[in-house]
Amino acid sequence: MARRGSYAKGVARRGEILESALDVIGRKGYQNASLKQIAEVVGVTPAALLHYFGSKEELFTEVLRTRDEHDLDTPQPVDPVDAKAAFVDVIRRNAEVPGVVELFSRLAVDAVDPEHPAHRYFLDRSERLRESIAVAFERDEQRRATLDPDTMARVIQAVSDGLQLQWMIDPTVDMPGIIESLMDVLYPPSPRATPPPAATQED
């Protein structure tokens, strides 16, 4: 029983560390979020952080997973229109936490190495994201895709990730607006879904 209690406390402590790290990175930025700062917020030593996560890279990878879990806490929409709005809303919320966006972009580059702790995270996340985009679009019978679902999902994902890099350099970039416009181009209303123009009476 004591062992189970210790395990539960360890899981709870680990979750507390991740939430604190997510908050520190979101407020102070990736470069300013040192292990020392995160440890101070949680009330532990940097060595204790490494006891739970092994390395700074593993900690930051789990921070991104925690951020994704927050997004998944919201009920996933079934209607394609709502799914599109939900995806755009996630991008809009990302603009409120530049430090997390910077962390995501930097780890994405490092995770090209198959041995990097975040490599599997990015592979799995990309697959889930593409599947969710493709499934949402396939359900909409009133619109017609200009590309096959998987290719379209990859294009949207690539543009979304690229826009984050542009936005970090130039915060005036309208990430959600551009993605929304791209979706309308890739998935326009079918001719059958467009109401005919109102008839005019001849003089």
From TrEMBL:
This is AcrR family transcriptional regulator. It comes from Microbacterium phyllosphaerae. The keyword DNA-binding applies. Residues 11-71 form the HTH tetR-type domain. Gene3D superfamilies: Tetracycline Repressor, domain 2. PANTHER family: HTH-TYPE TRANSCRIPTIONAL REGULATOR PKSA (PTHR30055:SF226), HTH-TYPE TRANSCRIPTIONAL REGULATOR RUTR (PTHR30055). InterPro entries: Homeodomain-like_sf, HTH-type_TetR-like_transc_reg, HTH_TetR, Tet_transcr_reg_TetR-rel_C_sf. Keywords: DNA-binding. Residues 34-53 bind DNA. Pfam families: TetR_N. The keyword DNA-binding applies.
